[in-house]
């Protein structure tokens, strides 16, 4: 199990570093099918792993002043409230419903990766009402299915928040960490009260492996075109979504 955790963590960190997003959407399938966790524990553990990796990764952006703190508050505070709400809502739905929503998100992520529009986003005018509502919505999704939502946060920050791409990545990482860790705290409370036990050794290995994978991804980034990698990952997401659907049916 430890070997599977290390391999999965390296893959997650690699994808996150090379593509700028998408790594967190692999965390739940890795925990489910490589590690063998129960669905609700996998979703909760994913939030802890994604939150920790994003927080540590954001430190470099903070150091180089590549984070917009007003946008962290504008998007992050409603996002934290939404994540708490999403985690609370999860207690009223079966894990099958959560996985169905997760598969839909994987397919949306695949389409966005395939279209490769991230480099074409142009900063729009700040729309406070929309960015607050978008932050809340992304937070609910994060809490409900355990994904960071970077592929939704970055375009929202640029198009609705009016900031440049150079600031959007670091700002997004900090928002993801805030949302994810709040969501994990709620899940921990809910699941612990039901007698679920978290595998902290697996969580620690996944966090450490994810950070190592992100370093390797920075090296790969120098030699392989990002557009090609995004299309490969888009196909991989579709195949993974089909795999989850098949496993759920069987």
Automatic annotation (TrEMBL):
It comes from the Bacteria. GO terms for cellular component: plasma membrane. The chain crosses the membrane at residues 30-56, 68-91, 97-114, 135-161, 167-188, 200-221, 227-245. Signal peptide: none annotated. Keywords: Cell membrane, Membrane, Transmembrane, Transmembrane helix. It is found in: Cell membrane; Membrane. It is a multi-pass membrane protein. Belongs to the 4-toluene sulfonate uptake permease (TSUP) (TC 2.A.102) family. This is Probable membrane transporter protein. It comes from Shewanella frigidimarina (strain NCIMB 400).
């Amino acid at each position: 199990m430890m070997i599977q955790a290390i391999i999965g963590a390296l893959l997650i960190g690699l994808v996150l570093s090379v593509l700028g997003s998408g790594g967190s959407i692999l965390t739940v399938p890795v925990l489910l099918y490589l590690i063998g966790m129960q669905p609700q524990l996998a979703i909760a553990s994913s939030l802890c792993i994604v939150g920790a990796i994003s927080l540590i990764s954001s430190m470099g952006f903070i150091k180089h002043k590549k984070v917009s703190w007003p946008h962290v508050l504008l998007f992050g505070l409603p996002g934290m409230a939404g994540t708490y709400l999403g985690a609370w809502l999860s207690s009223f739905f079966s894990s099958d419903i959560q996985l169905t929503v997760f598969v839909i998100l994987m397919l949306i992520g695949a389409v966005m990766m395939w279209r490769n529009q991230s480099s074409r986003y142009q900063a729009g005018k700040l729309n406070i009402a929309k960015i607050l509502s978008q932050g809340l919505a992304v937070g609910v999704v994060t809490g409900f299915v355990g994904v960071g939502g970077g592929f939704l946060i970055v375009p929202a920050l640029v198009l609705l928040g009016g900031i440049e791409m150079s600031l959007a990545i670091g700002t997004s990482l900090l928002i993801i960490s805030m949302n994810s860790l709040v969501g994990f705290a709620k899940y921990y409370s809910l699941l612990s009260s039901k007698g679920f036990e978290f595998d902290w050794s697996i969580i620690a290995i996944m966090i450490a492996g994810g950070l190592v994978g992100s370093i390797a991804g920075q090296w790969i980034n120098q030699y392989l075109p990002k557009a090609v990698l995004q299309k490969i990952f888009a196909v991989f997401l579709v195949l993974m979504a089909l795999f989850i659907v098949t496993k759920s049916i069987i």
